[in-house]
Design the sequence.
């Protein structure tokens, strides 16, 4: 029985909300607000949108997720990968920065919200399982490289464009001569400062005598120092006049509330991208949410997360934002700062609303190169090249899927890359199951256990051939099994009985059933018995429903040991091994 | 070591070719020639091509297959399904019957020949395994219905068009008023006669006193009687003047030898269809060839069949033909008539060449409705509606793939239907493996064998949870396993150890490896041991290559029985069952 609190999780925790939780949540919200304001501006820039769009996308969506989401600590808002995907999706339909582009961004958020809600209604959360870890990891690594490379032009103050790595590099090469020295100086120092802040500041502050908590807060607040410092420098040295590109005027005020206009052609154009944005956002968010929930022994509910993220995206769409999801960096900050309930997100929304209404114009003096530096430092921490080496050592198939994802994201863009990666990982799995491992097995001495004659010292019998097929039997491998069984029998003239050990057969489809009948017929006409052992319950149920058992003349043994006891004559150590 | 005879099988049998084989082959060739001439005309009409194209496609391709093919009895030439696919592929690029249409048909044959040869070079014959039996069976049934429905207009003598069932029926409905009585009379009597010939003639002739062999030949020659009789009627009653549509002038002479002209745009347009035509033809041909080879204890080699069919299609392309493959009906006739070697095909080619050079103009007086009747009777014998019921009883998944193939072939055409059927069967398999069957197992008393506690009376221990997961562990099901293991443990507070029995795990990919690590971590933090048993050799090799075993604190048991002996305390009959 599902209850109302399953659909609106806020009803489960809000009634017991007390002073202690409020204290924790307010503190976490303050930290997150400080982090979200510059991130919102930066990611909006990455998506090709006006800076305030990033702030708008960090208000109402947080409230929507607080009502419908199941993670206690997930922080929702604009994230790097989704911003990049937004730019890639909108680039063909409108000119970046134009009013049509802003409207299309809201439409994309609405569509991906609706897609997520529809997936929740159809209980399709399991679809996210089809994105394998290596593909997701490769996608995030490649996106990080692509995003960082794309920001270099802002660090140099040049106008290069491009949405794939070769085009970005070519653009940088051509534009290099026009680089602005003041912009470069600011960009380089901001990047170095932020790298230090992320990787070494906490240690330095603690060595300087600060307490653990204060040092942590200090390190988290570093971007704020970079931003405040750079704005002070802009005003003091009049860097705008020196050619340093600034964020420019940001209108102050509450987000505009409006539903995106219906435009059938645009909606159809954006739908495939909306599905991808929704799915990728869902996978990113759920993996962050699960990691954090596990640390505190909490649980998140995948299907309800679809509702939470869907609501957050619809909220982004009606308040002038663009697609959002649960971000890794900010969620960890929220968690570390001690957020107790989703109310922390609602408080952060209030903080950002305050900043949007009262502080927005101030950020107009922020150099774009400083925002670019915050993006570069954030996304490079997502790049995990070592994962390629680890995956390669374990599985060539996983490595192939990961490498193809990375290469195609870099060379052909995010959408092509992720679709090709998922397709390849599925095709490789199918190919793998179509060439099953088939072992000849014998009895491990002193046990009733049967293992591969090539790997273990086992007992076999010259007139009994026991084959273990290590795969479900279905159309793609049915013929392979047929050929292999007949070849093995042809190579052993003394064989009187063949037993197919089905401990690894989890399914037999209609095509494979025909192959089993063909094998039985061929062996029968050669005077050889064909039997099955260790057929699993669900598989046996299927055989009983078919006409297979009517014609099948062999026996079906509960265990391979029973089959061996009944059929093996003159058993002894496997001659191939002695 | 592969030898020249593997690539050119004719070298293996030709040196030993003697008088006995020649006698058998000549007789079979005569029968097949009689059958192939009207079929060639009919299928060319089905493909929207001039009638002589069907004859041309029945000469050189047979010789090419005789040289390169491995089946002793397969008869290659135009077939119904491939003719329908040819019409569907050419319809968008040229007007049926036009010179451009004829040239495009030859191009399609060339491309599908090249595709087949390329698949042979890349050893991609296994791709045919991905067409499941239910999908192929559904495709042939639906194509048969579609072809038969499409021929009704010729039986009625009206001009209705259409390439999907609704459009065909609509066209017939609108054209019904214009039906020609003479055409209908000829069409109906030819259809009834041919149905009788196919299903009852042999019995009637034997009851009339003919020997078994003579009766068989008489029945096979029935189409010839229908053709000769109808042509006599045309000439006698001057039916052409009565509005009966005739085949019309057929030029006599040898097939024109020429390579199709290179046209990049056309080749690109036709390539997808060429891949489909090649694959479907290959699957049809190989299944016919395998069925016949099995009856005589011969073998066909799938990869060399690609070469044989590829060569046959290239031969069709350079001699004014269109795509060909091994046909079911004519191969069975060839087999039954006693063909001993592929030389029968070469002799049949000579027979058809003779008919093309000397008899072609005679067939100009043949009514189209008689050709339509031969097609209808031939394809309706391929329709197997009972297969739907049998597959439904055994497997809902296979049934779904088959039903979707049938419905889409009828409603959206052959290409959409087969592609959707293959895609759906693959997706259903993936979905099936993404929700694995997981059983709690206990020891079958008196054995070392472990089975599902829900299906067998077994011995379990309250402090040991033994789970058998019935699927390879990979990204699509890794999370499901994680959730299930943790849920089962949460429901059993007394559990001290968990053993995952891996007898059905044929692969663990990188994503699943992370899930196993996550499960081990979660159980360890709850003070519960996590162990594996019956890990297969190839899977264990993979684990050894990874860092999994470095962190893994549990034990890996050779058999589940060993694990039970080491870890179970207070074992007894499973309480859930006693």
Sequence:
């Amino acid at each position: 029985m599902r209850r109302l609190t399953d659909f609106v999780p806020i009803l489960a925790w809000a009634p017991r909300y007390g002073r202690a939780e409020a204290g924790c949540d307010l503190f976490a919200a303050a930290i997150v607000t400080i982090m979200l304001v510059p991130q919102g501006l930066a990611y909006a820039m990455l998506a090709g949108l006006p800076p305030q769009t990033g702030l708008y996308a960090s208000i109402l969506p947080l409230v929507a997720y607080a009502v419908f989401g199941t993670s206690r600590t997930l922080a929702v808002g604009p994230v790097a990968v989704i911003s990049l995907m937004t730019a890639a999706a909108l680039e063909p339909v409108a000119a970046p920065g134009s009013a049509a582009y802003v409207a299309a961004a809201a439409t994309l958020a609405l569509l991906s919200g609706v897609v997520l809600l529809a997936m929740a209604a159809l209980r399709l959360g399991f679809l996210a399982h089809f994105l394998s870890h290596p593909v997701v990891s490769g996608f995030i690594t490649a996106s990080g490289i692509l995003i960082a490379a794309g920001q270099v032009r802002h660090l140099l103050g040049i106008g290069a464009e491009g949405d794939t790595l070769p085009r970005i590099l070519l653009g940088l090469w051509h534009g290099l001569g026009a680089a602005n020295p003041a912009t470069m100086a600011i960009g380089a120092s901001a990047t170095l400062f932020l790298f230090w802040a992320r990787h070494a500041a906490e240690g330095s502050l603690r060595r300087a005598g600060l307490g653990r908590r204060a040092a942590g807060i200090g390190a988290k607040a570093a971007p704020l120092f970079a931003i405040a410092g750079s704005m002070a420098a802009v005003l003091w040295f009049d860097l705008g006049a020196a050619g340093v590109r600034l964020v420019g005027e940001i209108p102050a005020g509450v987000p505009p509330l409006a539903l995106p206009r219906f435009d059938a052609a645009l909606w159809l154009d954006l739908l495939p991208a909306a599905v991808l944005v929704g799915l990728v956002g869902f996978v990113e968010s759920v993996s962050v949410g699960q990691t954090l929930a596990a640390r505190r022994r909490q649980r998140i509910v995948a299907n309800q997360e679809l509702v939470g993220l869907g609501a957050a995206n619809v909220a982004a769409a009606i308040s002038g934002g663009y697609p959002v999801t649960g971000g890794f960096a900010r969620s960890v900050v929220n968690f570390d700062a001690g957020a107790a309930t989703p109310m922390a997100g609602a408080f952060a929304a209030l903080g950002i609303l305050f900043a949007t209404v009262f502080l927005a114009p101030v950020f107009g003096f922020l150099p774009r190169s400083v925002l670019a530096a915050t993006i570069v430092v954030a996304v490079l921490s997502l790049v995990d090249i070592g994962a390629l080496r680890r995956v390669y050592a374990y599985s060539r198939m996983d490595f192939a899927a990961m490498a193809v994802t990375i290469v195609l994201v870099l060379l052909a863009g995010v959408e092509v890359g992720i679709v090709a990666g998922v397709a390849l990982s599925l095709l490789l799995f199918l190919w793998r199951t179509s060439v099953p491992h088939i072992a000849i097995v014998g009895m491990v001495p002193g046990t009733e256990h049967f293992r591969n004659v090539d790997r273990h010292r086992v007992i076999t019998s010259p007139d009994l051939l026991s084959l273990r097929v290590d795969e479900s039997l279905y159309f793609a491998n049915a013929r392979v099994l047929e050929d292999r069984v007949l070849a093995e029998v042809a190579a052993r003239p003394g064989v009187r009985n063949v037993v197919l050990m089905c401990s690894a057969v989890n399914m037999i489809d209609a095509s494979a059933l025909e192959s089993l009948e063909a094998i039985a017929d061929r062996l029968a006409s050669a005077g050889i018995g064909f039997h099955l052992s260790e057929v699993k319950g669900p598989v046996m149920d299927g055989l009983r429903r078919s006409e297979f058992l009517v014609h099948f003349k062999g026996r079906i043994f509960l265990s391979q040991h029973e089959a061996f006891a009944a059929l093996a004559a003159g058993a002894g150590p496997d001659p191939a091994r002695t």
The radius of gyration of chain A is 30 Å. Chain A touches chain B through 68 residues (CB under 8 Å). The beta strands of chain A are 76-77, 325-326, 438-443, 450-452, 459-460, 464-469, 497-501, 529-533, 556-557, 572-573.
